Hints:
By secondary structure, the chain is an alpha+beta fold. It has a domain at about 75-180: Chitinase A, domain 3 (Roll). Helix content is about 30%, strand content about 25%. It has helices at about 1-15, 30-60, 110, 125-130, and strands at about 65, 70-75, 90-100, 105, 115, 140-145, 165-175. Strands 1, 2, 3, 4, 5, 6 and 7 form a 7-stranded antiparallel beta sheet that branches. β3 (about 90-100) and β4 (about 105) form a beta hairpin.
Amino acid sequence: MKYKYILFVFLVLMVSCLKPIPRKPVLRKTSTFLNESVILNKTMNASEENAFRAFMEKDSLTDYLASPKGFWYTFKQKNSDSYLPKTGDQVFYSYAVFDINNTLIYSAEEIGDQTYIVDKQEIVEGLRNGLKLMTAGDVVTFLFPSYKAYGFKGDTNKIEINQPLIFKVQLIKINKKNESN
């Protein structure tokens, strides 16, 4: 019995002193998924850009400006004020959302008036950049590619995934950072 106990302890010590054998991954990661994703995004962006170019050609009486931030816009009403919103300013605005065929998705009444503290709150990226181009009283139409709007998630209601959108925005008022009203 004593020998069995000593033999058991000896075997346990021998096994415990072995180095662990590392496990190899079952699947090796490759860059295939990343490459396919890049190709898909480039194709989708080109398709959306072509759709917007066709939209702008149909609306040939309107001059659209290309933003360096990746969207197009045109002023429907331009105010003579020259003050553009800066970080920390509070802006009051309303907007309506349309699809690429100019079909109403959300009306301004349905959305209601909005407030936004510039660069301090999260809103749709295109709208965040677009509001900085406007002065109080301006009415602007923005053409946002899907990656500047709701992207690959949509809004889980009426806006589909990867849907390019048209925003018609009116900037009502700007409260400068150090003003209260």
